[in-house]
Amino acid sequence: MSLLLDAANAHTFVDAFRFIGDNPGFLARKALEQLELSGAALGIGLAVALPLGVVLGHLHRGSGVAVGASIVGRALPSLVLIAAFLTLLGIGFVNNMVALAVLATGPILTNSFDAVDRVDRDAVESARGMGMTGMQILHQVELPLALPLLFIGIRIAAVTVVATAPIAAIAGGGGLGDIIVNQASYRLSGVLGASLCVMALSAGVFVALIWLQGALTPAGVRRIRVGVDPSRKE
Amino acid sequence: MKRAGGPTVIPNFGHGSSCVTGDHVFCWGWVRGHWADTLGPALTQHVELTAIAVGIGFAIAFLLGLATHRVNRIEQPVGVVSALLYTIPSFALFQLLVPFTGLTWTTVEIALVGYTLVILYPAVVAGLRSPSDDVLEAARGMGLTPLQILTRVELPLAVPVIISGLRVAVVSTISIATIAAFVGPYGLGNPIFLALKEPTPFKTEIYTAGFLAVALALVCDAALLILRRTLVPWADRRFA
């Protein structure tokens, strides 16, 4: 019995890979659709949350906002956000983009605040003693030292958005989710194939951001290690 | 969203009050009328999904954590596996388990337990490491055996970190459990899912179920915070 089951499973996964092999163009188009939606959402999230978090961290004010954003951000399920914005903005690209952007702001805001807020006070003090202005301290001392932690926030947000984007298919978001929610047309092999592509896509984004972080981090800061806080997961 | 041509599909929301059929923003009457048959059971199910996942996840994480405490070597492999697991989107993981366990409650729980492990295992390991060397030295000097050190020093001192991990795990699990509706009619995601499938998304159902999910998460988070303050009142002075 269990042998039969195993054979059936193996067959299902072989079919899933066959689906990927048979439809590379289609899947690539869907993946691109998903990346467009994710990119737009992440862009908005970054534009709103990054300056806010960095400035609040620089001023060491508003820790309540940052903590609140992390708790509420974690508690807000993506499905609820997507469904709620669907009722407000109608079906299509914009509602999903806004829902995913809201999802992205939580980790970005919390981590950018934390990153800048936690920069070694002695380093900031020395910079001030050298006669640097607040702007110079932010640019030349706080931001370079904050980069590793700041990037963790961006990475969590990016992976969350890319991983959540397929759910947007139920609200007209397109992308690989279109295949996953439509088993009637694409069968289980298509659903699994698309799921594997979603996995590959979010892993790819994760790796790409680690690479980008390495490229952007000044050599002197690379030695500082920070832990990963899996504060957000969908 | 009405279909062009053909018969107009009238959503079946039970009692077709004018509020419901007129697509108003929020219908209290519907919530009152369907608490017992839709919202209440979905909320109970959501609590069950979460409690089982966090319960099993915590048991596994605790045992693995204790094992790691004894044998440091296994930390890295376990860490790498859980980091890999964490990058798998829940939506995709649910689907990938379907060939093995079908569209069942088990599929949902396996995925949820997996995600709680990713949060709880590092929390247990970090917690057991929280006593300083001086404290351990003092315990040894007092003649405590390794088992006594574990139960009387290391475990009590690990409680604050473990509860912090539980807070993150519970809130994330409540959030991810809404996606379970894609696998089967489980939890608070299900009413949302059904409301979205109506010809016109049914707002009242989406807002109420969404509110319940967020409220459940915040209530559990606050409850664990209170538990921590009661169990280990000294912790907030040392661990922010």
Low-confidence stretches of chain A: 226-234
Distance between the termini of chain A: 35 Å
Average of pLDDT of chain A? 84
Q: Assign an overall shape of chain B.
A: elongated
**Radius of gyration from the alpha-carbon trace of chain A, in angstroms:** 21 Å
Poorly predicted regions of chain B are 1-5
Largest interface: A-B, 45 and 44 residues
The counted number of beta strands of chain A is 0
Q: Nearest-angstrom radius of gyration of chain B?
A: 23 Å
Order of helices and strands of chain A: HHHHHHHHH
Largest sheet of chain A: none
Portion in helices of chain B: over 70%
Instruction: Tally the beta strands of chain B.
Output: 0
Shape of chain A: elongated
Main sheet overview of chain B: none
Quickly give the structural class of chain B: mainly alpha
Q: In percent, how much strand structure appears in the residues of chain B?
A: under 5%
Oligomer: heterodimer
Tell me the helix content of chain A. over 70%
Structural class of chain A: mainly alpha
Description:
The complex is a heterodimer of chains A (234) and B (240). Chain A contains 9 helices and no strands. By secondary structure, chain A is mainly alpha-helical. In chain A, helix 3 (63-75) packs across helix 5. In chain B, helix 2 (28-70) crosses helix 5. Chain B is elongated. Chain B has helices spanning 18-21, 28-70, 75-87, 90-101, 105-128, 133-141, 146-177, 189-197, 203-231, 235-238. Classes of the chains: A mainly alpha (234), B mainly alpha (240). Chains A and B meet through helix 1, helix 3, helix 4, helix 7 and helix 9 of A and helix 3, helix 4, helix 5, helix 7 and helix 8 of B.
